[in-house]
Write a structure and sequence with these properties.
The longest helix has 11 residues. By secondary structure, the protein is an alpha+beta fold. It has a four-stranded antiparallel sheet with strand order 2-3-1-4.
Length: about 90
């Protein structure tokens, strides 16, 4: 299952692990500046290899993102994450 979040803050983008897809939002009306998607294919491998210890819950991911420097992390529907781009590219 893919989990998606919106967040702001000042994370060190060079330290973002491969299991997270992070995009900066330039939309002025957006209260959150980052869209973050958990990449399940990479998470599964990281869990098996032991490079990631995680319980897989949304609250666990929020804590993980906060540890990376994100603030005001809110889980959102992945439809919200993908639909604006799909509408724009038509």
């Amino acid at each position: 299952m893919t989990l998606c979040f919106k967040a702001n803050g000042k994370p060190d983008l060079s330290a973002i692990p491969d299991w997270l897809a992070v995009e900066f939002s330039f939309a002025a009306k957006e209260p959150y500046f980052y869209s973050v998607r958990v990449v399940p294919e990479i998470v599964d491998v990281a869990l098996v290899l032991g490079t990631l210890e995680h319980d897989g819950t949304p609250s666990g991911w929020i804590a993980h993102l906060q540890n990376l420097g994100f603030e005001d992390v809110v889980q959102v529907s992945c439809r919200e994450f993908f639909c604006p781009r799909a509408d724009r590219d038509r």
